[in-house]
Amino acid sequence: MTEKDFIATISNPSSIDSGKYTWKTPSNIALVKYWGKKEHQIPENTSISFTLDACFTLTTLEFSKKKGDSGDFEVYFEGEKKDDFKPKIATFFERIENYCPFLSDYDFTIHSRNSFPHSSGIASSASGMSALALCVMSLERSLNNKMTDAYFYKKASFLARLGSGSACRSIKGSVVVWGNHDEIKDSSDLYGVEFSDDIHENFKNYHDTILLVDEGEKQVSSTVGHKLMFGHPYARNRFEQAEENISKIKEILKSGDLKAFTNLVESEALTLHAMMMTSNPYFILMKPNTLKIINKIWEFRKETNLNLCFTLDAGANVHLLYPENEKEEVNSFVVNELIQYCQNNHYICDRIGFGAKQV
Ligand code: DP6
Fold first, then answer.
1. In this structure, how many other beta carbons lie within 10 angstroms of the beta carbon of residue 182?
2. Burial readout 189-201 (b: 16 or more C-beta within 10 A, e: otherwise)
3. DSSP label at residue 266
4. DSSP per residue, 297-339
5. Contact 308, 207 (CB under 8 A)
6. Which of 71, 115, 125, 357 has a CB 3.0–4.6 Å from the CB of 164, allowing a cystine?
7. Which long-range contacts (CB under 8 A, 24 or more apart) does 194-199 make?
8. Ligand 1 site, CB within 6 A
């Protein structure tokens, strides 16, 4: 499919004057990371993620036919009016207006909340933008009742990508790939696709415990970070490595080889941060406690031979990934040895989820 296929076809334009839609959409954690993009939110390399379950955004989009020229929107976050959230959402609306021209016929009120604390350092753009994209698609579907489910979800992911790249992986499925890759069926740079190959039992119910090392706002936004991959001395090699890692992880997910999983996922996390440290301007998002936790995990693995591994996103928090049958040992390890490195002892127990839901 090309961009043109996502321009809305409206079969019953005046069918709806007002209403509201609510979607609950998950966050996701990338195993092979997206870091570097071209114009129009096209990724430099393919990425793959686990969809989360407990970390989600709940968004209601209320709409009513525009009276006169007003054409506006208001944003409420956790019940409070938030004008400082408006620029990001205005940019999103601008980016999608060609694909959803019907939006200009309505005024909107957006009510949103996250299951995780806003200042937890957990990126909310993936779940936030995917929720909004799905609400917009619900409106579009009510104006075009011939729309198929497959198109609905594909376009939702397409729109979410325009809001925030990683958001296109927060629509449908437990394991999602974004980016055109020869070995991934139907994959595209324009939207995320559910990983449709067999996934080994070892990955069913996989856990992700998020250790909140630093609960502040990020020092460097992902958008700025992505830009620093332009002219980065190692960028080309990094993008090639990511494509190779997609081929590798495809086999790992099939074979259930947890040692190979650990090796690939940890290498991806450290490579992401190595790219930040070797860009210009350079920056470090890990904190001393991030490194303490990583070393503790390596010791724990040596002692127990279990399959606990870590990954990082663009921040200091550590995601602990481990299989269902190791949860007891890992939980005691977290409580006894790792919580001390979390700000205010905060951590979140999550696991692999199934995607967005209309509520
Ligand atoms: C490190 O999706 O937040 O989490 O497209 O500019 O909104 P924008 O960036 P964003 O970048 C996510 C980067 C990452 C890796 C990943 O999720 O793949």
1. 9
2. bbbbbbbeeebee
3. H
4. HHHHHHHH----EEEE-SSS-EEEEE-GGGHHHHHHHIIIIIG
5. no
6. 125
7. 195/48, 195/250, 195/253, 197/250, 197/253, 197/254, 198/253, 198/254, 199/174, 199/175, 199/253, 199/254
8. 30, 33-35, 41, 47, 123, 125, 164-166, 222-223, 226, 272, 313-314
Does pTM top 0.90 for this prediction? yes
Question: For ligand 1, atom 6, which residue shows the shortest CA distance?
Answer: 223
Mean pLDDT along residues 198-217: 94
pLDDT tens digits, 218-243: 778 888 999 999 999 999 999 999 99
Please give the distance, rounded to the nearest whole angstrom, from the Cα atom of residue 313 to the centre of ligand 1.
Answer: 8
Tell me the CA distances in angstroms from 347 to 33, 59, 117, 152, 157, one per residue in order: 22, 24, 11, 35, 29
User: How many A from CA of 220 to the centre of ligand 1?
Assistant: 12
CA separation for the pair 225, 344 (Å, rounded): 28
Which pLDDT value is given to residue 118?
Answer: 74
pLDDT confidence bin for 70, thresholds 50/70/90 = low
CB 179 within 8 A of CB 45: yes
pLDDT tens per residue, range 49-67:
999 999 999 999 999 998 7
pLDDT of 11 reads 79
Q: How far apart are the first and last CA of the chain?
A: 29
